[in-house]
Amino acid sequence: MAFASNIHDSVRAPRRAGLFANLIERVSRYRQYRQTVNELGALNARELADLGICRAQIRALAFEAAYRDQA
Fold first, then answer.
1. How many domains does the chain divide into?
2. CA 27, 44, 60: angle at the middle one, nearest 5?
3. Nearest to 32, CA basis, from 2, 65, 4
């Protein structure tokens, strides 16, 4: 009986590792998104204008920065 449970654990282990890696990547990307939103949101209107950004674009730009290579 112990042998059968070991087989099942060895089959599930790679899936768990993949799920954990996926979770880590998603959290990392979300943190990058939030950091970009927070940093751009802290700028005043003049600083944003100097960068060529209007306040309405901040979330879209942050999303692109965090998730651009994921499609």
1. 1
2. 40
3. 65
